């Protein structure tokens, strides 16, 4: 609804052809097959049907979308829950229980822990499909809280870490890197909703405009999805352009300047930068080295250096 309390005929999308959403309009709307996609060359009216890839075709009801949704989340169809669980697990650990998240078929990898995958899928369904419940189970587990310290004996038994005996440090995603830089420098705009914006606006990265031929710069640098092909798992590369952007990019330089100005107003600016950027107190050695660095290069350079550190960019 609009501010005046009236219903909008179309959703407020920033598109060339806004999507219709008025129920009365949609009720009488007919979907037509177009000759070579030409809107001026309709061929025939198409009725809802059941995707043949899903197997045996049931009778189509008068609410085909609801029928499909009910089938997808039916307890008799656990595949949806297993795929869902695997994506959430991959999000937290960097690798799913099934290493091929986009392929659970014969060509994909088998699950490393099939019983765990099935149990989590059951938990998801039994909780009313609560992803928050799933997150809590994973984050509160001893597996998620494993140290990243290397253990020679464990490595000799399980060098690929299939048993999850250690945590692998995981780099933040492209969007999270940008949002974290804006957040620690007190420049992140937390407004919710509205149309997409350009990368020059300090909104959260989820609101950045995605153009296939002109993606946000940091998204391309840090292995973001390319908006052209389906991306079930992002790669993680390390290239020279990444630290160059983190040292010289406009976003980072503005954040470093803002951090330096705020820290300079405190009695212990170096300690303030560490607590603000790293979320912890600096050690005595770090304080000594950082103060010497500030004397020669300034607070802004120290702030930029901390924003470039692995401790800031990775979940250790």
Name the descriptors.
mainly alpha, 316 residues, two-stranded antiparallel sheet
Number of helices: 14
Number of strands: 4
Beta content: under 5%
- The overall pLDDT, averaged over residues, is 89
Radius of gyration: 25 Å
Largest sheet, strands/sense/barrel? 2 strands, antiparallel
Oligomeric state of the chains in view: single chain
Distance between the termini: 45 Å
Low-confidence stretches: 1-5
- Topology pattern, helix = H, strand = E: HEEHHHHHEHHHHHHHHE
The spatial strand order of the largest sheet comes to: 1-2
Helicity range of the residues?
40-55%
**Which class do the helix and strand fractions yield?**
mainly alpha
Shape: globular
Summarize the structure.
The chain is built from 14 helices and 4 strands. By secondary structure, the chain is mainly α. Helix 3 crosses helix 5 (131-139).
